[in-house]
Design a protein that fits this description.
92 residues; alpha+beta; 434 Repressor (Amino-terminal Domain); three-stranded antiparallel β-sheet; 4 helices; 50% helix
């Protein structure tokens, strides 16, 4: 069975690492769009992996992530900004 909290935590962490953005940097970027988060609150949320979809999208937005890919059970969900969600099977 998939632990979705772990999955989403890893997704967010990997996007931050790809861009060289620390949790302190993320807090500053969120503050710039009016979201009051501290490094400690972000540390806690990411550690638990239980944060809202709104928080997840806010984070992806401020780090300028326009696409994430999620692979599970032979299905790929590709999410890109300004496009519809595409559900694609791995069959090619």
């Amino acid at each position: 069975m998939i632990n979705w909290n772990v999955k989403v935590k890893r997704l967010l962490k990997s996007e931050l690492v790809k861009r060289g953005i620390s949790n302190a940097d993320l807090a500053l970027k969120l503050r710039q769009i009016g979201i009051e988060e501290t490094k400690a609150s972000i540390d806690s949320k990411i550690s638990r992996g239980s944060f809202s979809a709104s928080f997840f999208i806010q984070c992806l937005s401020v780090i300028e992530c326009s696409k994430i890919e999620i692979y599970e059970h032979s299905v790929r969900l590709s999410i890109e900004s300004n496009e519809e969600y595409k559900l694609l099977t791995d069959e090619k």
